[in-house]
Design a protein that fits this description.
Length: 318
């Protein structure tokens, strides 16, 4: 091969390699319009619509974990709504009593995990590890709210492992950062006693600051979890760090994008109340009450209306 021909071949190989690298870097998780529609219903507070569309997705693609994950996410927000309470100047779901309806939620997470596990056995893809992690993270959330901390820790640790593997296999799966961010944040906020138990149980540690950065990345770039990352980042900044101004900046876009979700309106109202902005707080509480009136589920509608009224009464007593 002549020097000139060799140079041409090398140049072509370089172009192909660079082109291949760019294509790989540009590859993203494929999220169709139907998935965005379900997510929009969930965060708009239209839980029943989200459920129906999720079931339709399951019927169309019974071996795809995503339909079951989306139905579980819709169920989670229903649980949050009915479990929420106004306490310490803040509306949030702190505890959930076990009830028969929880079994359907856990069945969805188990089904999604098994399907993801089967997908991993066939082809070890980052996407299937992401779905397995999401299934475990959903289970961990409810276990924690039911004060089943050992089960929550087990599911959370396994989710962490899948999130890490998903990113190793495919760095474009930025939704994994939402899960890792929540893990790192919460593990670093454990009490001294809980920290000792964490070490004894062999649970990996975490960094709250790293968790915040990961949640911010998930918030900016996540395709499935951007709104979830934004909500939990605002909640954590509010509840654990008392960074009310920053939390308000984070939650405001959700309250504006989804005015029909009273949960986001209540958080914005609580933050304005903490910042002594009474008029803005009351406006948000009234918006929450109006939004609550449009909710389809009677139990959730009544709970959100009562919480909006309790928030306004607390504001007037200040």
């Amino acid at each position: 091969m002549t020097p000139i021909l060799r140079a041409v071949v090398v140049a072509l190989v370089c172009v192909l390699l660079v082109g291949s690298g760019r294509a790989e870097a540009a590859r993203k998780l494929v999220v169709g319009a139907n998935i965005h529609a379900i997510l929009n219903d969930i965060y708009s507070g239209q839980i029943e619509n989200a459920r129906k569309k999720s079931v339709e997705l399951q019927e169309k693609n019974p071996e795809d974990p995503l339909g079951y994950l989306l139905e579980a996410e819709a169920e989670w927000w229903q649980i949050w709504c009915t479990s929420a309470e106004f306490k310490y100047g803040m509306t949030m779901a702190r505890h959930h009593e076990k009830n028969p309806g929880d079994e359907h939620y856990f069945a969805l997470t188990k089904r999604a995990y098994k399907l993801a596990e089967a997908g991993i056995s066939e082809q070890n893809s980052g996407e299937m590890h992401l779905y397995a992690a999401m299934a475990d993270a959903l289970a961990a959330r409810l276990y924690a709210m039911r004060s089943e901390y050992r089960a929550s820790a087990h599911a959370g640790v396994r989710a962490r492992e899948h999130f890490i593997t998903a990113l190793k296999l495919d760095p474009t799966l930025t939704d994994a950062y939402t899960g890792l961010g929540l893990y790192n944040y919460y593990v670093d906020t454990l009490s001294a006693i809980a920290r000792v138990l964490r070490v004894l149980m062999g649970i990996p540690g975490g960094s709250k600051q790293e968790g915040i950065l990961q949640l911010e990345k998930g918030m900016r770039e996540g395709q499935l979890s951007a709104s979830l990352a934004r909500f939990y980042l605002a909640l954590n900044l509010f509840n654990y760090d008392q960074k009310y101004e920053r939390a308000l900046e984070v939650i405001a876009p959700l309250a504006e994008k989804y005015p029909g979700n009273p949960v986001f309106q209540l958080m914005r109202g609580d933050l304005n109340a903490k910042l002594q902005r009474r008029d803005l707080a009351e406006a948000s509480y009234r918006a929450a009450e109006t939004a609550a009136n449009e909710l389809g589920d009677p139990e959730c509608r009544a709970k959100m209306r009562r919480l909006a009224q309790e928030s306004m009464e607390a504001l007037r007593r200040k």
